[in-house]
């Protein structure tokens, strides 16, 4: 996966996502595993506010179509309860975790091709205390 970004993740999200990896079908977590493997883990309070974390509302732009989308990055069990959400196990969810505003990543889509997206904005909602 070609990318122009660094992956930052806080300890809390890393711990919970490692748990998700252990419980999920290995085929469905390959992209997330790769992102977490490349991540720099920082303390919860050291993660900059412009970094995508769990429960962030993320606006991103497709480099090909220039269309913008806003989604909330959630755990798999939360997708049916939260409007406009995307699971961390979805390819775009795994691609978004740890990105900062302005960073770009290429991610796979179901037709077998890749799309390039750029993070436009991040709004963080902390569902768990830091």
Using brief descriptors, characterize the structure shown:
six-stranded mixed β-sheet; Chitinase A, domain 3; globular; alpha/beta; 130 residues
Report on this model:
22% of the residues lie in helices and 30% in strands. It is an alpha/beta fold. The protein has a six-stranded mixed sheet. Strands 2-3 form a two-stranded parallel sheet. 33% of the residues are buried. The N and C termini lie far apart (31 Å).
In order across it, which strands form the biggest sheet? 1-7-8-4-5-6
Please write the string of helix (H) and strand (E) elements: EEHHEEEEHEE
The major sheet is characterized as: 6 strands, mixed
Gap between N and C termini:
31 Å
**Radius of gyration, Cα only, in angstroms?**
13 Å
Explain briefly what this protein structure is.
The protein has 130 residues and is of the alpha/beta class. The chain contains 3 helices and 8 strands.
Write the layout of secondary structure elements.
Blueprint: E1 3-4, E2 8-10, H1 11-23, H2 30-38, E3 40-42, E4 57-62, E5 68-74, E6 85-87, H3 91-96, E7 104-108, E8 114-123
Parallel strand pairs: 2-3, 5-6
Antiparallel strand pairs: 1-7, 4-5, 4-8, 7-8
């Amino acid at each position: 996966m070609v990318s122009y970004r660094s992956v930052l993740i806080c300890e809390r999200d890393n711990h919970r996502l490692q748990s998700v990896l252990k419980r999920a079908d290995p085929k469905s977590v390959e992209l997330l595993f790769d992102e977490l493997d490349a991540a720099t883990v920082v303390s919860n309070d050291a993660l900059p506010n412009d970094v995508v974390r769990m429960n962030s509302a993320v606006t991103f732009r497709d480099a090909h179509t220039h269309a913008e989308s806003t989604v909330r990055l959630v755990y798999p069990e939360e997708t049916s309860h939260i409007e406009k959400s995307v699971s961390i196990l979805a390819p775009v969810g795994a691609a978004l975790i740890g990105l900062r505003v302005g960073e770009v990543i290429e991610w796979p889509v179901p037709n077998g091709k890749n799309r390039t997206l750029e993070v436009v904005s991040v709004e963080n909602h902390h569902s768990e205390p830091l």
